[in-house]
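Run log, item B.
One chain of 248 residues. Sequence copied directly from the ordering sheet:
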Amino acid sequence: MDAAVRATNTTGGFLHGMPRRKGCTWLDAYPLNRRPPLARLLERSVYYPASGTDWRPMQYLHPHFGSYLYSDYGMEWERIRDAVQRIPGFTAVGVREVTAADLGVRKWAMPQLQASDGTPDHRNDFTKPFFGLWVILESPRRERTSLLYLCEDGVRIYHTLYVACGVVPACIALIQPGHAFGGNWTNFFDPAAPLRRCVSGNTNGPPQFLVHGGIGDPASYRNACWTEYRELISPLEPGLNLWRKADQ
């Protein structure tokens, strides 16, 4: 994708074949001194595990979806607190610290694992203490977008929040999740690994859309990592593609 098209998309261009965002007007007046309304944050959300500070899914998709849940257990609170104030294309109009209790979580639960899966405990050298930040962002078009950032394992979050609440995100982003040298205990790309099993095991099915990509040869991402995503909606940039789940 050339630079002109990429710039249009990252500043709010509409992607052909995608739904328009809806149900986000409540963000205009919701007081940040109240607990985050978890059900609203999960509905029609974009989930990005092992996200780091990669804001591209939000930049590309905010004309279509208004709520984002990012997670990464290797991030420091200070780094994310500062980074959310400088997301290109957005202005942070409110930031609130969030505890697990604010989300109704007593314990982050893990789905049943197989002996060959390993556990997040294998990467305690990389894991940082839990924190949560809820950020309300505003685009140049004065559209408000929610970003919930949690320092916790991506599989635990999906199982504890989405599966337990019976909610399916609209889209999941799997981009260079760091399973080789980046500190991730599991390979999110692997269709037989815990994240995919957790997503597939949700009684309401998997998300409709997938953003998939990474560094290296763009040809490596010619096909989506999970086989149910076979319809290419749009190449967002070299090595980063947006897919739709195939109808059964």
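Observations after the first pass:
- Confidence is low (pLDDT under 50) at residues 1-11.
- Residues 38-192 form one domain.
Flagged for discussion on Thursday.
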